[in-house]
Structure formats: C-alpha cells, structure tokens
Amino acid sequence: MDLELNDIQQELASTLSKYLRSEYDAAKREEILRSEEGISREKWQAFAEMGLLGLAVPESYGGADMTFNEVAVVAEAFGRSLVLEPFLATAVLGTNAVLLAGSEEQKQAILPGVCEGQTFLAVAMLEPNLRYAVEAPETTATAAADGGVTLSGEKNNVLGGDVADHFVVTAVENGDLGLYLVAADAEGLTRVAQRQADGLGNANLRLENTPAQRLDAADAREVLTEVIDLGNAAIMAEAVGALEASLTMTADYLKTREQFGAPIGVNQALQHRAADLYAELEYARSMALYSRLAVTSEAVGAEKDRHRDVIAAKIVVDQAARNISQESIQMHGGIGMTMEYPIGHYAKRLTVMTRTFDDADSLTAELAELGGLVEPHAADLS
Amino acid sequence: MDTLLNAEEREFAQQMRQFYRTEIPEELRFKVATGQELSKDEMVTSQRILNQHGYAVPNWPVEWGGQDWTPVQRHIWLEEMQLACVPQPLPFNVSMVGPVIATFGSQELKERFLPATANIDIWWSQGFSEPNAGSDLASLKTSAVRDGDKYIVNGQKTWTTLGQYGDWMFNLVRTDPNVKKQAGISFLLIDMKSPGVTVRPIQLIDGGHEVNEVFFDNVEVPVENLVGEENKGWTYAKFLLGNERTGIARIGGSKVNLARAKAYAAVTKTARGTLLDDPLFSARLTKIETELTALEMTQLRILSTQAAGSDKPDPRSSVLKLKGSQLQEDISELLVDVLGPQGLDFVDDRVQGQGLSDLPHGAVDALPAYFNTRKVTIYGGSSEVQRGIISKALLGL
Ligand SMILES: Cc1cc2nc3c(=O)[nH]c(=O)nc-3n(C[C@H](O)[C@H](O)[C@H](O)COP(=O)(O)OP(=O)(O)OC[C@H]3O[C@@H](n4cnc5c(N)ncnc54)[C@H](O)[C@@H]3O)c2cc1C
Fold first, then answer.
1. Distance from residue B156's CA to the centre of ligand 1 (Å)
2. Which ipTM did the prediction report?
3. b vs e for B61-83, b when ≥16 Cβ sit within 10 Å of the residue's Cβ?
4. How far apart are CA A94 and CA A338, in angstroms?
5. Ligand 1 shell residues, CB under 6 Å
6. Contact indicator for A136, A203 with CB cutoff of 8 Å
7. Model-level pTM?
C-alpha cells in the first residue's frame, strides 16, 4: 500500500509552492483582485509555461499526458494561495468536458490553446429554476436547417464564464440531454459577468438561437457526471490547501495574540476547539485523497463507485470547510472580519467551494439514495 | 480498502479472512456479531486457537512468537479479525504487558511469562488507575517498599477490567515518594492469589460486572517481579499506552455494528415506511458512514507513512482515538434508536414466550452496549486528553 506522493508529484508541489509564495502572496493577490478582470493573464501565461494547464491532457493535444493526481497537486497549492484564475473552470471542467465528449477535430481545435494558456473554457450547467439539478436543463437545442444546431435558454453562475472563450453548455434536444460547444462571440449569446463572494468570476448567460456544435462523442449524462466528479475532486484538493492555510494561520494567531496578559492559545477552551479542527483537517485530507483515488481508479467496475465515493468524500470535506472557516474567524476575533486580514478570504473561498456543484445536505440525501457506503448486514437476520 | 493493497497484501488479507472464518468456531463469532457477552472460557479458547497458528501476538518480537510483519499486515490482521467477529485476544496480555516484558524485562521474566501470556495460560489485569489517579496517572499512590528480597505493597487500584478472572496483575507502584512524581514509579508484576490482595466488583450502568477495585494490604512481592529498573516504570507505561492507542479506533468493529444497525433499520417499520427511508435517520446514518470512511482513510494514511519507513510515534494516532471512539459511541446510539421503545428495557432474552411475540433483534444488547460504550471516550486517554495532545504536538499550542 502506498498513498504517498511520488517523486514527480512532490517536485511539482514544491516548485509550485515556491513560485506561489513569492509571486502570489497576499499583496499580489490583492492587486489582481482589484484589477478590472479580477484575474492576471500574465500569471495564467506563467502557469501555462510551467505546464500546469494541460497536465492530464494527452500529448497529442498539447498536454503532459499525466493524470488527475498531478492536477490535484496543483489544485491544493492553488487553494493554499487562493489563486483567482479559472483553473477549475478551464483546466478541470472545460477541458474534461471537451476531452470526454468532443470529436477528434473538436479536441484538436480547443485543447492546444487551453494548454498554451490562450483559451479559457467554462461549463454552463446551472439554470435559474434548477438549483443544483443539472441533469434536466430547460435550455433547448434545435437542429438548424444548415445541419447545425442552435441553443435557447438561460444559464447562471457559470464558473469562469466571465472570461471564457468557449462554453460547454447543457441543453435538451428531442428529450435527450446533450452537451454543446458555444463560442463566446457567437450570435445570440448575452453574458453578464459577476464576481463571486470569493473573488472568482462567473457569468449568467442568455442564449437566443445561438449557434452551437454538438459535443456528442459520448453519452452526455455520463460525461456530465464525470466532469462534476472531477470538479468536486479538484475542489476537495483545493479545499485541503485552503483549510491547511486557515488552520496554520489560526494556530499562529492563538500563539501570538495576547489578552489578559497571555497568548489567547493558553486557554483550553480554544486549544480543544483547535484540536477538533485539526482532526477535521485530517479527515478532509483523507477524503480528498479518497476522491482522488475514486476518479483515477482503473479497477474493473470503478466507474460504478466513482460518483458515490466522490460525493461521500465531499460531505466530509464540506463539514470540515464549514467548521474550520467559521471557527477561524471566531478565534481571530474582530480582525478576522476585515478585508485587510487574509483569514476571511479563505473563509469566503471555502464557503463558495462547499456550495459549488451541490451542498452537503443534498449530497447526503443523494448518497443515502445510492445505498450509502456500508452494505447492510446482520448475522441474526437472514 | 482491498483496492489500495498491493498483490501480496491482498493475498495476505484473503488468507487471514479464510483463517478466521474457518478456524474460529462459528458460534463464538456469532456471539460477537450479535453483541453477546463471552465467557472467560470462550475468550481463552479463541485466543489459544490464534496462538497455535501464530496469530495471537504478531506485534511481539519473533523469538517470542511474534511475526515479522509490515505495519500494513498488522493492520490487516486486526481489521479482518474484527470484520470476521473473532473475539480479540486479551489486550492486557498481548498489547500491554507482553510487549513491556519483551522489551524491558529480564531474560528470566521473559521465559517465565511470555509463552504463558501469549497462550493466555495467565490472565493479566491492568493495575494502573487509582481512585485519585485517572487522567493524571503519574500521581498514583499505591506504594511498594523494598524489604530485603521483596516489596511490601499497600494501596488501591480501580477500574480493573475483568479483574475477577485475573491470575496476575501488572501494576504501576510508587517506589520513591521523594522525587518528581513520574520519576518514582516502578512496573511491578503481582500474583493476584497473594495474601492481602482483595478484588471487589464494581457494577456499571450497563448492568454488567466488567470492572473491579483491587486492594493491596501488605502484599509481599518478590523483587524479581520488577520489570526493568526500579523507578523507570513511567517510561515503560508510556511505551505501553503508545501501543494501546493504535488499535483503539476499532474501525472493523464499527463497520460490523454499522452494517448491523442498517440491516435492522431496513426491516423496521415506521409510520411512513421503513426506518432506513426516514430522511433524518438516513441522513444521520449516511453521515456516520462517511465519517467511518474518513477514519479508515486516515488510518491508512498513517500506515502508509509508516510503510514508507517512519517508525516514529505518530501524534496523528490521537486523531484516530478521538474520532474512532466518538464514532463507536454514535453507532451504539444509532442501534438503540433503531429499536425505539423496545430498546429501552434491560432484558435477558428476546424470546418472551407465553404467546408474546419475540422482541426485535438487538433488543438484548443494544441498550447495555450503548451505556457500556461510554467508556471508550474515557479510557485509553480520554477525548480531552487526546485534544490536549493534538493541540500541543500538532498545533504547537
Ligand atoms: C470501563 C472502564 C474500564 C477501565 N479499565 C481499566 C483497567 O483495566 N485498568 C486501569 O488501570 N484503568 C482502567 N480504566 C480507567 C481509565 O483509564 C480511567 O478512567 C481514565 O484514565 C480516566 O480517569 P478518571 O476516570 O479518573 O477520570 P478523570 O481523570 O478524573 O477525568 C474526569 C473528566 O475530566 C476530564 N479531564 C481530566 N483532566 C483534564 C484536563 N487536564 N483537561 C481537561 N479535561 C480533563 C477527563 O477527560 C474526564 O472527562 C477503565 C475505565 C473504564 C471506564
């Protein structure tokens, strides 16, 4: 049994951390946050040059032909530094949607640009009347006279949609769920950019007979589930980075902030709560790993368990994210509520992460519906 | 877990699974699976079968019957044992006094005690806690005063688990009252049949007789029963408690109990269907399942660090104790809640007779088990003690 990072992954982690420590500290991040686009295209270019944007993409499309394990290493480092650029939207969601559902030609057209840092992608799956139920969109796809297809409908909270060059859009065509590729400058597409609480950008979209291409090399429902599973696994890795940073920062604060003539951390009430948070951080690390194993497993029949295992993991990580983000603010007192101090920024990112593709309550209900993780068995019941 | 194991480990797991399910009598495993109490003879029988095959004390040095296993194999040995509902070998023998004697005892003590300890020809009791020395164990007062070639022991131990079966007792005793409290403690083996030893039962809230008080009134103990050096007992005790903590998460056992609660819930009717379909019950159950998986992954991560070559004590094992014990309690509560009103009586048998219908499965054991399981967050270093360790060792507070 070996659950450690291999040498290449360790190297990737340490190189990237070193880079982020010097080039993505709180002050530099703040500058990016205040900029018009809210992201740094320069940094994005640097990520591309480091090879971070196509890690799990085959070489034939300009990638490094590695696995999701390396993607998770990057996500964790990005979480620690609260990177604002749309890595999740482009390099995880968009890339995998195109990889899994695109034709050879579509992959060749889109992916090399992504790997080089020239193209941003976004997956548009949420809709105003659906909350998180992405399997049954109201957006429709209609075959056009010229053999193409057009989309009409509305999408909301499209992560990375503010800067995306191409959208992967869910829609229903003749009663079936489909995935479609839409260029950002396509006719009949209106986009309203927004800023999430965590500073990341998204967009609401209106599609009116917007020309699109079908992404139909695989079953749309299966692709969508896999893309969300990968997205959740990446979010969990990112969350681990952010949780680790939050708890380290909080423990440091407990050691340095003095009240009543002593560091506040001498109080057992705070020590024990911090210890509980540490235990939750270990759980989050364990379950981020569990989800990574689920999405990379090559065992026979692994797809069947993949979705179940990812949502099980997310339930635990969400719990840790909620407790650590809330308690971190509490243990900092007033300073924790200021924009000037970093702890609140972690809390904001974590708050959004726990609600991005679904929330813990509905994941729990879904996992229960799938039968849970433990097979019922009692020796005295036959 | 199987998918994380390499081919050899998987084969080993298979082998252990097979062994437990064929060699340990079915009726013993059924008793464990359904929460029935085992008699002393049944526990002894089971441990002797394990010992015959070299599976009672794999954590001991090879020359004393241990196995040259990796940390992962040791984990599999225990996990599969719990999953197969095999009665676990007596912890006082195999994970407490045995390793202490094997590591710190004289050759003479090893020869005299280790084989008999592995084979449970001697039943050991643990004499650490005292009425006024619990979490603050080092403040213990039971005294051993040297008198020629013997010690004279006076004082009281308490919470002595299964002391009613005990042949011998390993004790922490004060041999020097004039130094820092940790520096005056020795590790002494006492024959419980010695004159002056009195064992008195304590009844617990589960109705059972599991623990005892043990009184020492001028008990004479030969000096050769001292383990290691005089006044070094605290070091040996820390070694012992460190060994205790690793297996204490009881993940396999929790899986069995959770599967059981779930199976019962699936056949328990409510006003709206089965209990398993009840949204709040099922949410609670599902959360516990995810936490148990998180606990297991945490255990495997710690093992993986050990397998990669680190044999330092890992303070993360305090997380296993803290979380694992809480989960055991949560699961025991779940089982009580499955039974509803029929889980609230202390009964000896689910068959009522006299034309009344049988009580539901679990009606005999769920409630006592719920009360009994309160102990797991108290002993082996209470949850508060574990939080203290975590906040110091892992957060530097
Ligand atoms: C069923 C059972 C079986 C046992 N079997 C054995 C046995 O075989 N042999 C043996 O030697 N012992 C045995 N024990 C004893 C066990 O090790 C002690 O109960 C344990 O060490 C706690 O001590 P205490 O009960 O005196 O509680 P105390 O130490 O008095 O603690 C009371 C409460 O205060 C908390 N507390 C204590 N100190 C602190 C602190 N510094 N900060 C915050 N909170 C604190 C504790 O966590 C606990 O919640 C057994 C106990 C039980 C319940």
1. 16
2. 0.96
3. beebbbbeebbbbbbbbbbbbbb
4. 34
5. B 126-129, 134-135, 159-161, 210-211, 375, 378-379, 382, 384-385
6. no
7. 0.96
